[in-house]
Design brief:
The complex is a heterodimer. Chain A is an all-alpha fold. Chain A has 47 helices and no strands. Chain B contains six helices and eight strands, in the order βααβββαβαβαββα. Classes of the chains: A mainly alpha, B alpha+beta.
Chain lengths: 945, 183
């Protein structure tokens, strides 16, 4: 390349680097005028175009460049980014394979081809390339690439079971051919042992791990050491492992809990490894127990307060001895628990440490209860306060259902609050970046008031909880746990804007949006004012979905990088991570919510219908993983009682796999009917690669069959109203499908339309379309008159006509009962959804000409009464919600709210005026929600009348 | 008492109780994976017996010649698991691996000049201030502590390879460099 040309190309790179894509295109065009055939500049232009979402133009250029089979490094790199942007990974592979084939001596091209396959999980091809590279370049790293690709292929779900050992044996043979032994690198050694494990050659693996070098590697690599522990278990060498661990605990002062677990497992191995242990075995275990007890006691003495391992191991030992009926002293476990509490009662984690050991019964239970009572002492120091909190938590855990009465719970709540308010003094000097040591008392009080609400059904307890926790949050701004409770309470109270505010203050970002966005986006459509054009929750869904984009753009790159740095121990985890995010349940629950809001927010036209149909169909093939984190929500409920998370879920249920499956079926079917796209058309219009087909045999059946299947897990996952909607939607689709199929234009006509539209755009036509057009020959113009008669017009199934009345009855029941805002809004939103779904499925028959040509006048007549009933019911609900909105944000409403917590208010800090502010916030937010939803319903009616 | 085990990519799904704390930053995927793809042995997790994450450390090895060292990029413990010597456990491991695997001269870390609790803790582990880095935490703006809030101490601890203890000096607190000189 001439240096003059170089000078012209540099500004293009600069523009791309600063994401000035428009200017990059201008620069490219300038250079292309003089050098119209410069392939690098064309590639850079394609890149700038794809980054501007000008997919079709970029596509044409990309195809042109690929046809020239480029080999130049710069062109290949640019094209890799272009094709990635277009989602055409198979083209990337083909491009590099081509280039490498032309230059088999180019090591870098080989590496790139290998990586291209690695990024998409093409292990078989990756393995072959690595093998070829090893032969050519004699570098051991390529041999290990080959080996590890074989391991990954063996573990791939699509690989046949019979082939797995073959691949692993091949990998093992390759390792043995390598000139340098595997132990020269920790990660190669890891791969070697891993293969031996997977081939169940445990003794060989053990031999490797147990020689001098193996031991040394395990001492510096946690990953290898983890593998060693696993193999010891698989070999049944539990006792050896126990001896080894004992040695480490005593000589190396190792306090890794895994070592203690090894000793514990070894202690009971003689009886745990057999179903009928002999007398002799029992005697041995008894001896072992004594020995282990000595060891743990000694460790406990040596470590004192520095480390909890010894005393905790004693607890675990006593618990297991009891499970096996080898406990000589019935009070042993309780005595140990008490002594543990005396020693570590002032550690914040003491409660969590002890919970697995305190399920006492009978006499032991009463002794433990009275012990706790003696420990309840006024707290005038921070450690004292932590001890008191642990006492409260353990006492609460102990509560029997008989003790969960409104009266007793009220007393407990009052005590938590009293201690909380006085405990605040201990943290009064802390900067506001610190947590208050008394926080957990407010959280306990929150538990008690929420429980009171559950017990009595009185909303006022939620008002008290909201007031107190809001105050606690103002005193401890960094406590996310208080915010979590507030989010749930605000949602139950119909104040979603406050819940959202709390969520945003938690600063949830990056991968946390996958695990935590459920807090505010679960059934978000019920809070959303999308019909009024308010897209808050829709944008929140989009924002929370960013992480899935980063995942598909970045993670695979690190799989390739881990190959290049030879950190094989990480690769399998990276792949699992990518898969779990890519197929995240929360991702697609959010997608469904987005669709539900979109349908309420936008016009029901072909753009919406076709795009969502294609996307939902892709999602339907996925095997989902649930990454949602519910464990962050604190739980100090009594044993055997539902957790705080469970009792504070709005509408009482959390949607899961079954819910997603049902909703996917509902909307795929709905969009399928409303859409003109069929599979052949869809294929032609698709630009990127299709997702890998799922290996699940269930997914092999034709789509329509799969859509028709009903599963119990779907029903179990839905609220009664959602179940009703599911039945209604299925009945509606079943009823209308024949008429849609009759009216839908043939694929040839559609493709012709698309091609025509495409011709009008600048640039070249889409290849697929041009071919389709040629094949189809003559084109017709949109609607065509069919000669055959329409299917006989049937009356709508009863359920369709009745659904609105049924929902209205449920709404009225709630109005006459608890009037819980979250429940009311849920029923109203499902009713609105049923109405919109009806509009979606009948939009095709809106055009008078369609009805006339196809003689569907009678059918359309029957729509009228259904739609009218929907409108009536929705109007009534909107009226009720407006009335409620008026009632709530009044001086009386606020007064009642403040009164709820009057008994616990104080003169300063948590005083009347503070609570009044909370009352104002909550009632205003609720009013705004009720009003908005009510207006939204009216808007929906207007739009679809 | 805790399980010491490698940090895994999938721990990103589990670390909320640690990362929702104000002092722990949550980075993009590529941050964590770039560490795991190069220095997996310098990253580890402390886990409670019931499987909850208690804390983690993320480190790397860098520097040329006598500056070759292990670096603590992030060390964090969830609020409810503090004061249990978990940080010490993780630092011990990072130092051990820096010494044995990477043959580094020293381990270093950065700490806010105002964070006395942490500074004392690291001193107790054998670290000393090597230099003060001006405006290292500049992105957070001037906090209540003024300069101290945004300046960092670079603290170091020599490993067995640094026989002459060249990586530490007694007057480190007085030696001030700008953030540009260290990153």
């Amino acid at each position: 390349m001439s240096s003059a040309l170089d000078r012209q190309i540099k500004p293009i790179y600069d523009a791309l680097e600063t994401h000035s894509n428009k200017s990059a295109v201008v620069q490219c065009n300038k250079v292309l005028k003089k050098h119209p055939n410069n392939i690098l500049v064309k590639a850079l232009k394609a890149l700038a175009l794809v980054r501007q979402q000008k997919v079709e133009e970029s596509l044409v250029l990309a195809d042109e460049i690929l046809a020239l089979k480029p080999t130049d490094d710069a062109v290949l790199t640019a094209m890799m980014h272009v094709l990635r942007g277009l989602g055409r990974h198979s083209d990337i592979i083909a491009m590099f394979e081509n280039a490498y084939k032309q230059n088999p001596l180019n090591e870098d091209l080989g590496t790139q081809t290998f990586f291209a396959n690695v990024r998409v999980g093409n292990w078989k091809a990756a393995q072959q390339i690595a093998g070829k590279m090893h032969k050519q370049f004699h570098d051991d790293r390529y041999l290990y690439w080959n080996v590890y690709s074989a391991v990954l292929q063996a573990n791939d779900p699509s690989t046949e079971a019979a082939l797995r050992p073959v691949l692993l044996k091949l990998a093992l043979r390759l390792i043995s051919q390598c000139q340098t032994p595997s132990f020269y690198s920790t990660d190669r050694f890891y791969v070697h042992v891993l293969i031996l494990r997977d081939l169940q050659l445990y003794d060989e693996a053990f031999a490797l791990l147990n020689d001098e070098i193996g031991k040394r590697i395990c001492a510096i690599s946690l990953a290898c050491d983890e593998l060693r522990r696993e193999i010891a278990k698989l070999r049944g060498a539990v006792k050896d492992e126990g001896d080894h661990a004992r040695e480490r605990i005593l000589e190396k002062q190792d306090r890794n809990w895994l070592e203690f677990l090894s000793v514990l497992d070894a202690t009971f191995w003689d009886i745990s490894s057999t179903s009928e242990p002999s007398e002799e075995a029992i005697a041995t275990v008894k001896e072992q127990i004594v020995k282990s007890r000595e060891l743990f006691t000694q460790v406990g003495k040596e470590d004192g307060l520095k480390d909890r391992s010894g005393p905790l191991a004693l607890l675990e030992l006593a618990k297991r001895a009891r499970v096996y009926g080898l406990s000589s002293d019935a009070s042993e476990l309780r005595t140990l628990v008490e002594s543990y509490f005396s020693q570590f009662g002032d550690k914040a984690c003491c409660y969590e440490d002890l919970v697995p050991y305190v399920d006492f019964e009978g006499e032991e239970f009463s002794k433990w209860t009275s012990f706790l009572n003696t420990q309840k002492q006024p707290a005038d120091t921070t450690p004292g306060l932590r001890r008191l909190i642990n006492v409260f938590k353990l006492q609460r855990y102990n509560l029997t259902s008989g003790e969960l009465t409104p009266e007793l719970e009220t007393e407990r709540a009052a005590e938590y609050v009293r201690q909380y308010l006085s405990g605040l003094a201990l943290g009064s000097n802390l900067p506001d970046t610190e947590l208050q040591p008394a926080d957990d008392l407010a959280i306990l009080a929150g538990h008690a008031y929420i429980t009171l609400w559950k017990l009595t059904g009185e909303e006022s307890h939620l008002h008290t909880a909201a007031s107190l926790l809001d105050y606690a949050s103002s005193r401890s701004r960094q406590s996310y746990q208080i915010r979590l409770l507030l989010i749930r309470i605000f949602q139950l109270l119909g104040a979603p804007s406050l819940a959202l505010e709390q969520y945003r203050l938690m600063n949830v970002k990056q991968v946390q949006t996958d695990t935590l966005s459920h807090l505010i986006l679960t059934r978000a459509s019920m809070w959303s004012l999308a019909p009024l054009g308010d897209i808050t929750y829709m944008s929140e869904c989009m924002e929370a979905s960013q992480i899935y984009m980063s995942n598909s753009q970045e993670t695979a790159e690190f799989v390739a990088r881990a190959f290049s740095t030879e950190k094989y121990s990480q690769i399998a985890d990276f792949i699992v991570f990518e898969d779990r995010l890519d197929n995240s349940l929360q991702r697609d629950l959010m997608k469904i919510e987005h669709v539900r809001m979109r349908v309420a927010n936008e016009q029901l036209n072909a753009d919406l219908v076709d795009m969502e149909l294609i996307e939902l169909k892709f999602i339907f093939d996925r095997l989902h993983h649930d990454n949602r984190d519910f464990t962050v929500i604190p739980n100090y409920q009594p044993r055997g009682q539902p957790s705080l998370n469970e009792i504070t879920l709005p509408v009482k249920m959390s949607p899961g796999m079954g819910w997603l499956s049902a909703y996917l079926k509902i909307y795929i079917k709905g969009f399928q009917l409303a859409s003109d796209l069929d599979d052949t058309v869809e294929d032609k219009l698709l630009i990127g690669d299709r997702p890998k087909p799922s290996a699940d045999p269930e997914n092999q059946a034709p789509l329509n069959e799969r859509l028709a299947i009903r599963k119990q897990e779907e029903i179990d996952d839905m609220t009664p109203e959602e179940q009703l909607f599911y039945e209604y939607a299925s009945a509606l689709s079943g009823w209308l499908a024949p008429y849609h199929d009759h009216v839908r234009p043939p694929p040839a006509a559609l493709l012709a339309e698309a091609a025509k539209a495409n011709d009008l755009k600048p640039g070249h036509p889409l290849k697929n379309l041009a071919a389709a057009q040629a094949a189809n020959g003559s084109t017709t113009n949109g609607q065509s008159k069919k000669d055959d008669e329409p299917p006989a017009i049937k009356e709508p199934p009863e359920l369709i006509s009745k659904v609105f009345d049924e929902l209205k009855a449920r709404f009225d029941a709630e109005m006459n009962g608890q009037k819980l805002p979250s429940e009311l809004l849920h029923i109203a939103s499902i009713t609105q959804e049923a109405f919109l779904f009806f509009a979606l499925e009948t939009v095709r028959f809106k055009q008078a000409s369609v009805v006339k040509i196809h003689k569907l006048g009678n059918l359309v007549q029957s729509f009228k009464s259904i739609r009218e009933r929907g409108q009536e019911v929705l109007t009534q609900m909107a009226d009720e919600l407006s009335k409620l909105a008026e009632q709530v944000a009044t001086p009386e409403g606020r007064h009642k709210f403040v009164q709820a917590s009057s008994s616990i208010q104080t003169d300063t800090g948590f005083h009347h005026d503070y609570v009044l502010n909370v009352a104002k916030k909550v009632t205003d937010s609720r009013k705004q929600t009720f009003e908005g939803i009510s207006k939204g319903i009216r808007k929906v009616i207007k739009n679809h009348s | 008492m805790s399980v010491t085990r490698p940090f895994r990519a999938t721990d990103l799904f589990k670390f909320n109780n640690i990362n929702l704390d104000i002092w722990t930053e949550t980075y993009g995927i590529s941050f964590y994976l770039s560490y795991l793809a190069r220095w997996p042995d310098l990253c580890c997790v402390q886990e409670s017996p019931n499987g909850r994450m208690m804390g983690y450390v993320i480190g790397k090895a860098e520097g040329a010649g006598p500056e070759w060292h292990g670096h603590v990029t992030a060390l964090t413990v969830a609020p409810e698991f503090r004061r249990l010597s978990l940080a010490r456990k993780m630092m011990n491991l990072l130092e051990w691996v820096s010494d044995q695997t990477y043959n580094a001269f020293f381990v270093d870390l950065y700490v806010r000049c105002t964070n006395n609790v942490a500074i004392q803790m690291y001193e107790g582990m054998g670290y000393s201030v090597y230099r003060r880095v001006r405006e290292y935490y500049g992105s957070l703006g001037l906090g209540r502590g003024g300069k101290d809030e945004e300046d960092a101490f670079d603290m170091r601890k020599p490993l067995s390879r640094d026989q002459g203890r060249r990586s530490v000096r007694p007057n480190g607190r007085e030696i001030v460099v700008s953030a540009h000189d260290v990153s």
